[in-house]
């Protein structure tokens, strides 16, 4: 089965090119076009085994439930993907991927973070990842913490994951912590990426 990477170019560095399909997007790319392009490529291949999304994650120092700002930033506000981003307001657009993608790996800062005051709000990252899994029927892999990457000597390399990593699925939309997330790293070799 085929693999695909979506790289939002605001994440600086060259796009890994060992996927069957590479989709580079910018701040001017409509999220609907990104979703439809991905679905079209998945249909061409009859299915995508892996869909890697490389972008920034939205983090903020908001306590929505407490209606105050906090001293530290927290993630969970969605993905900076294309013009509108992908978040709890528009995740249903990914329904176009339902039955077409087996695994979605989010290489972004803290998409699975849920600050206790943001649980049940639009800043609930665990809820976002769970809804994305339910909507697409895919397993969604995402980290809770800020992620760091290198790009000086070639394609983007996230290295080892920072903090806990979770798998969300239709069977478990609340997520399960992955004991060893190393198989989901982005800088896999050409021979093992597909």
Q: Can you describe this structure in just a few lines?
A:
The chain is an alpha/beta fold. The chain contains 3 helices and 11 strands, in the order ββαββββββαβββα.
Strand content: 25-35%
Distance between the termini: 7 Å
Major pleated sheet: 7 strands, mixed
Overall radius of gyration: 16 Å
Tally of separate helices: 3
H-E string: EEHEEEEEEHEEEH
Shape: globular
Molecular structure report:
By secondary structure, this protein is an alpha/beta fold. It is built from three helices and eleven strands, in the order ββαββββββαβββα. The chain has helices spanning 31-44, 125-136, 190-193, and strands spanning 2-8, 21-25, 48-54, 56-57, 60-63, 68-74, 79-80, 101-107, 139-143, 165-168, 176-177. It has a seven-stranded mixed beta sheet, with helices on one face. The N and C termini lie close together (7 Å). The model is unreliable at 189-194 (pLDDT under 50).
List the helices and strands and how they pair.
Elements: E1 2-8, E2 21-25, H1 31-44, E3 48-54, E4 56-57, E5 60-63, E6 68-74, E7 79-80, E8 101-107, H2 125-136, E9 139-143, E10 165-168, E11 176-177, H3 190-193
Parallel strand pairs: 1-2, 1-3, 3-8, 8-9
Antiparallel strand pairs: 4-7, 5-6, 9-10, 10-11
Offer a few descriptive terms.
7-stranded mixed beta sheet; 194 residues; disordered C terminus; two-stranded antiparallel sheet; 3 helices; 11 strands; alpha/beta; 27% strand
């Amino acid at each position: 089965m085929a693999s695909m990477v979506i790289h939002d170019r605001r994440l600086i560095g060259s796009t890994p090119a060992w996927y069957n399909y590479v989709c580079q997007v910018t701040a001017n790319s409509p999220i609907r076009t990104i979703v439809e392009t991905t679905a079209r490529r998945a249909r061409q291949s009859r299915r995508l085994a892996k869909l890697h999304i490389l972008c920034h994650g939205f983090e903020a120092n908001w306590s929505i439930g407490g209606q105050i700002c906090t001293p530290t930033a927290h993630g969970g506000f969605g993905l900076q993907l294309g013009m509108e981003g992908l978040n709890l307001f528009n995740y249903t657009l990914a329904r176009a991927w339902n039955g077409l993608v087996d695994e979605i790996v989010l290489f972004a800062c803290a998409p699975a973070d849920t600050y206790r005051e943001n649980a049940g709000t639009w800043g609930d990252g665990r809820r976002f990842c769970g809804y994305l899994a339910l909507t697409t029927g895919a397993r969604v892999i995402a980290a809770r913490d800020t992620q760091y990457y290198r790009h000086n000597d070639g394609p983007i390399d996230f290295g080892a994951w920072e903090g806990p990593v979770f798998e969300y699925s239709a069977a478990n939309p609340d997520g399960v912590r992955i004991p060893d997330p190393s198989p989901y790293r982005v800088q896999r070799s050409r021979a093992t990426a597909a």
